[in-house]
Amino acid sequence: MVTHQELVSCVGWTTAEELYSCSDDHQIVKWNLLTSETTQIVKLPDDIYPIDFHWFPKSLGVKKQTQAESFVLTSSDGKFHLISKLGRVEKSVEAHCGAVLAGRWNYEGTALVTVGEDGQIKIWSKTGMLRSTLAQQGTPVYSVAWGPDSEKVLFTAGKQLIIKPLQPNAKVLQWKAHDGIILKVDWNSVNDLILSAGEDCKYKVWDSYGRLLYNSQPHEHPITSVAWAPDGELFAVGSFHTLCLCDKTGWSYALEKPNTGSIFNIAWSIDGTQIAGACGNGHVIFAHVVEQHWEWKNFQVTLTKRRTMQVRNVLNDAVDLLEFRDRVIKASLNYAHLVVSTSLQCYVFSTKNWNTPIIFDLKEGTVSLILQAERHFLLVDGSSIYLYSYEGRFISSPKFPGMRADILNAQTVSLSNDTIAIRDKADEKIIFLFEASTGKPLGDGKFLSHKNEILEIALDQKGLTNDRKIAFIDKNRDLCITSVKRFGKEEQIIKLGTMVHTMAWNDTCNILCGLQDTRFIVWYYPNTVYVDRDILPKTLYERDASEFSKNPHIMSFVGNQVTIRRADGSLVHISISPYPAILHEYVSSSKWEDAVRLCRFVKEQTMWACLAAMAVANRDMTTAEIAYAAIGEIDKVQYINFIKNLPSKESKMAHILLFSGNIQEAEIVLLQAGLVYQAIQININLYNWER
């Protein structure tokens, strides 16, 4: 068994079961986790002290057996070395005066950035030729990271963080980040967030504009390492005798106090289930992420060991144990199904029967995201998106040119029973829409484009395919809604609210909830904006949300319960009124008398307003009249009476369209029916003299 005699400076995974480590005793050692064996790969010359190393990235979307074949190693003698997996030094390059403190490949493996004690940031080609010197600082640069698109580089300068694009004369972003020297940075490609760690004993989370999202309490010792998990949901923090696992919003799940000395470097395995740390006392520490938690209605699922889950039904306290052949990588529990992906297979359990899962083999590499809808679920791996039914049958695999599946997350993909929506990374103003059953682009193949960058998208889950709506939040924090079906005519995008930070659709009916500034808001019938925008404010439910502190996030909206994760990690449950859901139910099965009876029983403005909008949307004018009368909209009651007394079907139809503000469509209906006089009349009433 080979061990390190001196401090370990850096570690890196080749596969999920194999790790390399470098130490000040000049050895590079390979660790095999399956057999717990270690072997010395190479003994470096005595004048080379390794400081940092990084495996050459695997090419995206090839079979999962390919492993990294070579790595870059930076050392204290001002050189970096390109070394093969077997330990042969392919090339050594003089790079900096003084030690080379960090070296990082970009995501495509087309460029390498190195930083050194001389304060220089240099970009090199794949073969180690100097391309450019990006910047020069007066202070040593301790850490560097590539931006998600490999077009920007983040580096440290004393207490400052600097983001510099590779293009000359592009804007450089610089801000003071810590009160002590910054020792480590990391930038995640999925969530676009930045981690920094400093000698002021704090770690911080930033967005890519340099806004502070989380600031930790001071620890006892300087933070020596930080690292994002590949999917951007978790990160790890290392310090003296300290290893910490945190959520992407900053709060800590677990704090361990292993006997390690300082942890100088943390590496996540490719599937994001375990980490390795390079320790100051010559050890390498391994840690597994366990105890993840999933909840749905009355079921609680916990990952107790790497290959074991425990399912608890809180109604009768029945406990089931689920055993898996390989280690669990991702799981999702929703719509009465638990979907679990391991390193080789996918398991689908029904909550009615935990004993007989459906199992199928996975095509490609590690699953990074599982999304569920009522009828089917979606798997995302490094190269593609796959849709499966709950019987384990493959349905479709949507594609568009330039799609990067490795950076999709729950905010940028949405799934409903008939539609898949994906927000593209190349142009963040665009949403691609696909038919779920075929994987082909929806309708006439046009995508949905918005005037601003889109941050988060969500499809509604119920109702007819033709009425499918998509809600999204853009960069200005406006919540917008639009129809998914696009037949030639430009669907309008309508703003529902401003300053919305997070949102979710209900799983059983089309009710939308969101957190707006300091209010929690429920849009009981978002479709109102297409029917009668004036009464939208009357269809909302609002309550104060200041108790959730800042940056809360809506986790789920199941039945009439909304689950919110506060910034400190605690969960809060809010119950909303069950009646609007029952109203949706009645209306979708056209039980108008029951709906009116329900509103009379509840005696609430919001219910009557929703019913009024639903009735007009479904062209039921009798109910609409009752509902509008109940909310005191007398002018609309009169107009509806006028519509009911119209002689022909076409003119009724046209006036209902007019009522909803669709003037052109109303005109077209009348002209098609040959009612030219009425078409002229409505334009005169609207003072459209040109027509």
Question: Could you give a short description of this structure?
Answer:
The protein is mainly β and 691 residues long.
What keyword list fits this structure?
9 helices; 5 domains; Neuraminidase; Methylamine Dehydrogenase, Chain H; 4-stranded antiparallel sheet; mainly beta; 691 residues
Radius of gyration: 29 Å
Specify the number of helices: 9
The pLDDT mean sits at 90
Percentage of residues in strands: 35-45%
Model description:
- Component of the intraflagellar transport (IFT) complex B, which is essential for the development and maintenance of motile and sensory cilia.
- WD repeats lie at residues 93-125, 175-207.
- The chain is mainly β and 691 residues long.
- The protein folds into five domains: 8-58 and 68-288, YVTN repeat-like/Quinoprotein amine dehydrogenase (Methylamine Dehydrogenase, Chain H), CATH 2.130.10; 290-397, Neuraminidase; 400-468 and 477-498, no CATH class; 501-642, no CATH class; 646-690, no CATH class.
- The protein contains nine helices and 54 strands.
- The protein has a four-stranded antiparallel β-sheet, with no helix packed on it. Strands 5-6-7-8 form a four-stranded antiparallel β-sheet, with no helix packed on it.
- Helix 5 runs antiparallel to helix 6 (634-644) and helix 6 (634-644) runs antiparallel to helix 7.
- The relative contact order is 0.05.
